[in-house]
Amino acid sequence: MRPSGRQPGDLRPVTIETGIIKHAAGSCMIRCGDTHVLCTASLEPRVPPFLKGSGLGWVTAEYGMLPAATNTRNRREAQAGKQSGRTQEIQRLIGRALRASVDRVALGERQITIDCDVIQADGGTRCASITGGWVALRLAVDALRQAGELKHDPITDHVAAVSCGIWGGVPVLDLDYAEDSEAGTDANFVMTGSGGMVEVQGSAEGAPFSRDELNALLDLADSGIAGLVSAQKAALA
């Protein structure tokens, strides 16, 4: 039995509430069990210098965790004067994941920045950030379209992310912290709504995992992504 009482293939309860922040072009609060992430999208009529004059848009992301998001206070990275390697790695992952759903020609020379702020953490914060970040991105693009600033919809597909792992010798979906901290294998899958792979991160914490176990994790991820995409659609309906 998993610590949460879930079956191996069960997601945590997922809710996505939109329209959280007044001044953002798109915003949502995504709750995956006890992991809660505020995602906002901001529009800028410019692109980074390396894209100026290219006709291509840009989607990027920033990620952070509030001091009280975990059971011990996290020092603000601004206080330390630099971002941790973990923060940089996660926000680059979020940016890569979301760009996979965007036709950057159709977006035009503008930048959309997705900010993901972890309010409460119980495992899977990067996955929740990607899943909620896509909703904020979708809402920002909808705002551009409603304003008549885009001729074509640049969003090509849903993108969501979910963790899987081998806990107690059993492949399980959507690890919370109690499982993540003890899992023999931990993996994150970023996928499109149509089943395409965007990124796969996986590592063995103890014994190496087998091809059959990897296939089992992938099957769980397929199911989990389908559930998360359904939650995205429900939030936007």
TrEMBL record:
Keyword Metal-binding on entry: no
CDD domains the UniProt entry points to: RNase_PH_bact (cd11362)
Example of a GO MF term: 3'-5'-RNA exonuclease activity
Residues the entry annotates as binding phosphate: 86, 124-126
SUPFAM superfamilies, per database record: Ribonuclease PH domain 2-like (SSF55666), Ribosomal protein S5 domain 2-like (SSF54211)
Catalytically driven reaction(s): tRNA(n+1) + phosphate = tRNA(n) + a ribonucleoside 5'-diphosphate
Alphabetized Pfam families for the sequence: RNase_PH (PF01138), RNase_PH_C (PF03725)
Entry-linked PROSITE patterns: RIBONUCLEASE_PH
Biological processes annotated in GO: rRNA 3'-end processing; rRNA catabolic process; tRNA processing
InterPro entries in the record: ExoRNase_PH_dom1 (IPR001247), ExoRNase_PH_dom2 (IPR015847), ExoRNase_PH_dom2_sf (IPR036345), PNPase/RNase_PH_dom_sf (IPR027408), Ribosomal_Su5_D2-typ_SF (IPR020568), RNase_PH (IPR050080), RNase_PH_bac-type (IPR002381), RNase_PH_CS (IPR018336)
Span of domain Exoribonuclease phosphorolytic: 11-140, 159-221
EC number: 2.7.7.56
Keyword field: Nucleotidyltransferase, RNA-binding, rRNA processing, Transferase, tRNA processing, tRNA-binding
Subunit structure: Homohexameric ring arranged as a trimer of dimers.
Family affiliation: Belongs to the RNase PH family.
Function: Phosphorolytic 3'-5' exoribonuclease that plays an important role in tRNA 3'-end maturation. Removes nucleotide residues following the 3'-CCA terminus of tRNAs; can also add nucleotides to the ends of RNA molecules by using nucleoside diphosphates as substrates, but this may not be physiologically important. Probably plays a role in initiation of 16S rRNA degradation (leading to ribosome degradation) during starvation.
Identification of the protein by name: Ribonuclease PH
Gene designation per UniProt: rph
